[in-house]
Predict the structure.
Amino acid sequence: MKLFTQMTKIALFASSLSITGASVAAEPMNLDSLLKTLENGKSEQREQNKQREQEFAARQNEQVQTLKNTQAKRNQMLVESERLETQFEENEVKLANLTDTLSKRMGSLKELFGVLQQVAGDSSNKFATSIVSAQIDGRSTFMDELAQKMGSTSKLASIEDIEKVWFELQREMTEQGKVSRFNASVIVEGGTKAQQEVVRVGAFNLVSNGKYLEFNPSTKTLSELTRQPVSRFTATAEDLQSTKSGVVQFALDPTGGSILGLLVQAPDTQERVHQGGTVGYVILGVGVIALLISLERFFSLLIMGGKIRRQLKDTVARDDNPLGRVMKVKDQFPSVSHDTLELKLSEAILREMPKVTRNLTLIKIISVVAPLLGLLGTVTGMINTFQAITLFGTGDPKLMAGGISQALVTTVLGLVVAIPTVFLYTLLNTRAKNILLTIQEQSAGIIAERSEKGA
């Protein structure tokens, strides 16, 4: 029984190893059918093994032939490599001999070509950034190509190249002393291009339509400065473009744009006022109030003084001026004693004093408060500056510029308001005192007159 079981397992294992690919339709029901199945599987496997051996033998012959072909090709390449290596060594020797011969024949020309290469390289950078290239293009390209050619040991400059280098250098120097006019495409405000007449002042400035232009070397385009300098500079540009001959004044930038760039970045008066912040606006508001009050007091005292001068020439008292109203007291009390009249006149003068000195104290207060507000702005700006230093350090001065600007601008605004306000207060106070002094002088005369009559 055990033998039967083992044989059954062996038969099933042999059937599983068979690679015929055919599946058994039905399981064997007895040992005879199982034996028959094993015999069929062995015969089929034997045939497959023979077929595989034949295919392997055929492929082996192909692989041998391929190996022979590869070995023959390798031997051929080794021979070619030896030949090329020999030729390379021979070429190295020839190249060294030719280089030595070239160096001997060049002699002093080698130093000349070295200088020419250096000059061409330096001139290429100079011409690329020069505003003369806005009118004369292509010079930097030639210089750059010549410098690259001279850097190669196999190429030398011709006589024409050397003459052209000299010509371009001479033309650059000549154009620096000329005022030239030419038409070019200019990028105006808004980003649009317009064909305009451009005036080039040497290698320093470009102007068009009374505005300064900027030359971009990378794109080789002309564009109006986004922000023009103050009017006294642009006025000279307009004069230069409108004048076809003769001598005119012109704001020239000898640095080729550096000074002009600084002038453009400099803030104008309005921007400086904005830098003062809230404190600056308060100072200006206070200053405007002081100015309006001063104007009102100036004209009021001027008219009042004129009426008082006319009253001095007239014996009849009028109600349109302080002196006339004071003089009417004498007519209202014709029979009182001079002591009583003196008291009545003093009372009348006291009623007129507020009208004469009205708002003068407010002007004086503003003249004192304005510099104090400027000091407040200074302290506030320095606090902002130290806060910026605490947060960002001192690496970038632009971060501290806002606080410093506020500190300085508010101080200036406070002094600008305070100084003229002091002068206005002094002037108006002097006028008011003169009017009151005239009234008091006339009152003293009235009392003296009444005293003489009483005596």
About this structure: Residues 31-106 form the longest helix (76 residues). The first strand starts at residue 179 and ends at 187.
